[in-house]
Amino acid sequence: MSEHRALVGPASLIASITVVSRVAGMFRETRIAALLGADDANDAFIAAYRIPNMLRRLVGEGAVSAAFVPTFSKYLQGEGRDQAFRLANAVLTLLTLGLAVVVVIGVVFSEWLVPLLVAGFRDTPGKMELTAELNRIMFPYILLVSASAMAMGILNSLGRFAAPAFAPVLLNLAIIAFSYATGAFATPERALAVGVIVGGVAQIAVQVPQMLSGGWRFRPALDWRHPGVRKVLALMGPVAVGVGVVNVNVVVGTLFASVIGEGAVSWLHFSDRVMELVLGGYAIAIATVIVPMMSRQADARRMEEMKRTLNFAMRLVLFITVPATIGLIVLRVPIIQVLFERDEFDASDTSMTAYALLFYAIGLSAFALVKIVAPAFYSMQDTKTPVWIAFFAMLLNIVFNAVFLGPLQVGGPALAASMAGVFNAIALVVVFRRREGALGIRAVGSSMIRFLAASAALGLAAHWLIHRPGFYFDEPFSQRAMALALTIGLATAVYFGVAALLGAREIGELRDVLRPGGGRAR
User: Fold this and answer.
1) How far apart are CA 112 and CA 114, in angstroms?
2) 3-class secondary structure, 511
3) Other C-beta atoms lying within 10 Å of the C-beta of residue 101
4) pLDDT tens track for 220-251
C-alpha cells in the first residue's frame, strides 16, 4: 500500500495541475477555433505546428522518458547527485547542439518538408505556402521544448513534480495571450505561431529555479565517452525508431485527412484535443510518476513489486478512462458545441468534429494503457520490444486508414488510430506477461466488468439528462454550459455510486492511499 500511496500522491498533484493545463488548453483551442474556424488558415496552422511537435515527442517522450530518465534515476540512486548531474549536463549539451542543427535545417528547408505531411494542400492556392511559413516560425520550438523535457525528467526523478507539471500551462497561456494581440501581426495565425515560441521559452524558465535549488548547475560538457551518455544513446536508438513510428501514424492520419477537403485536418485536431483533455488527467500523470518508480524497482530486481505497481496503475487508469469513453460517446455533440461552436466555428464544424470524436473515443483506454505499459519495458531498459509492437501497429494504422477513409470520411483516420492503439496496448500486455509472469490480468478483467457496468449506468444517466425537454438549450451559451456541466457531474456521481455497489475495489484503494496515514503497510 505504501508503494500505491507513493504513486497516487504525486500523480494526484500532477493530475490536478495537468487538469488546469488542459482547461487552459481547451480555452486556447476555443480561441483558435473562434479566430480561424475550421478553414484553410487553421488547417495550415495545425499542420505547421505538427512537424516541430512530432520532433518534440521524439525527444521529450522518447529520448527523455525512455532513455534518459531510467539512466539518470540509476545514477541518482547508485552514484549520487553529483554524478547524475554530470550525466545530465553531458546529455543536455549534446542534445542542444544536435537540435540546433535540426532547427536550422527545418527553417531552411521548410517548404520541402511541409508537402511530405499535407500533400492534399496543393489543391488550394496559397495554402501550402502559408503552412511552410508558419512552420518556419515555429520550428525553433523543438529546441526549447526539448530542453524543457530534459528539465522535467530531472525534476521528476528528484521527486519534484509541481514545476514540470505546470510548465505546459505557460505554453497555453502564451498562445492565448497572443490570440488577443493579433492586431500587431499580419494575420491571426502568425500571432499564434509567435505565441508558441514564447510559450516554449516560458516552459524552460519556470523549471530552472527548481533545478538550481535541487543542486544542478549547468556546465557544458562534450563528453561522448561518458558511460551514462553511451547508455542513453544506445537506448535512444530503438526509442527514436519507436517514437518515429508513432509519429508516422500522425502523419498518415493528417495525410489522409488532407485529401478529404477543407476543414478535415481541423476537425480531427479539435476532436483529438478533447481526447487529450481526458488523457491529460490521471493517465499521463501516472505515466510520469511510474517511470522513475518502476526504474528503481527493476534496477533492484524487485520484480513482484514492479508488477504490483503496474497492475495498480493499469486498474486505476481503466477506472477513469472506461467511463470517460462512454461519456465522450454520449455527450460528444454538446461537448463540441460548448467548447468550440462560436464565431468562425459553426454547426457543421461541430457535427464533423463530434463525428471524429466518436471514433477517437473508442481507443481512449488503449491509448492510456500504452502510456502505462510501455514504460514498464523502458524501466527494464528494453526499448526494442515496444518499437516492434509500435511498428506493427503503424502498419495496421495505414491499412485501416485506407479501408475506413472511403466509407467513414473524417471518421476513418480516427477509427484507424483507435484500432491501432487497441492492438498496441494488448500486444504490450501480452508480451510483458509472457516474459515476466503473472501480471494479475484476471484482477484487471474482473475490475473491467464492474467498470463497464457502472459506465453503462453513467451513459444512460447522461443520455436521459441531456435529452430531457427544456434541459439542454441551444442558446444562450451559459445555459448550455451549465446543463452540460450538471450532466457530467450527475452522471459521474452515478458511476461512482454504481461502482461502489458493485464492489469496485479501486474506490477503497484510492480512499486508503489518499487518507492521512493510509499509506502505511498492512
Assistant:
1) 6
2) helix
3) 10
4) 888 777 888 888 888 777 766 666 666 667 67
**CA-based angle 336:322:403, to the nearest 5?**
70
How far is Cα 326 from Cα 460, in angstroms, rounded to an integer? 10
Distance CA 53, CA 48 (A): 9
Joined grid coordinates for residue 305? 513489486
* Interval 476-520: pLDDT, tens: 778 888 889 999 999 999 999 999 999 888 787 666 544 444 443
- Nine cell digits for residue 114: 511541409
Whether this prediction's pTM lies above 0.85 is answered by no
Q: DSSP readout, 277-323?
A: HHHTTHHHHHHHHHHHHHHHHHHTT-HHHHHHHHHHHHHHHHHHHHH
CA dihedral 257, 140, 163, 192 (to 10 degrees): -60
Half-sphere exposure of 157 (CA within 13 A, CB side): 30
Q: Which residues pair with 342 in a beta bridge?
A: 345
Contact 132, 116 (CB under 8 A): no
In a 13 Å sphere around the CA of 374, the CA atoms on its Cβ side amount to 30
- Of 271, 375, 270, 272, nearest in space to 317 by CA: 375
Looking at residue 516, its pLDDT comes to 43
Asked if the peptide bond before residue 164 counts as cis, ω within 30 degrees of 0, the response is no
Distance CA 142, CA 473 (A): 43
Do 97 and 323 contact (CB within 8 A), yes or no? Answer: no
By CB atoms closer than 10 A (0-12, 13-18, 19+), residue 251 is middle
Decide: 267 and 38 in contact? Cβ < 8 Å.
Answer: yes
CB burial readout 138-147, b (16+ within 10 A) else e:
bbbbbbbbbb
Retrieve residue 442's grid coordinates: 484476471
Q: In the chain, how long is the greatest CA-to-CA distance?
A: 70
Query: What was the pLDDT predicted at 149?
Result: 85
Answer for the pair 63, 95: CB distance below 8 angstroms, yes or no: yes
CA distance 65 to 497: 37
Cell numbers for 59, please give them.
Answer: 525527444
Residues of the chain with pLDDT under 70: 1-16, 18-19, 57-66, 239-248, 250, 280-292, 473-475, 509-522
Alpha-carbon separation of residue 268 from 176, 265, 303, 353, 432 (angstroms): 21, 5, 40, 7, 32
CB half-sphere exposure, 120, CA atoms < 13 A: 19
Contacts of residue 500, Cβ cutoff 8 Å, sequence gap at least 6? 507
Question: What length does the chain have?
Answer: 522
Residue 261: name the closest of 121, 63, 402 by CA: 121
Q: Which of 113, 104, 107, 114 is nearest to 137 (CA)?
A: 107
In this predicted structure, what is the pLDDT of residue 188?
A: 92
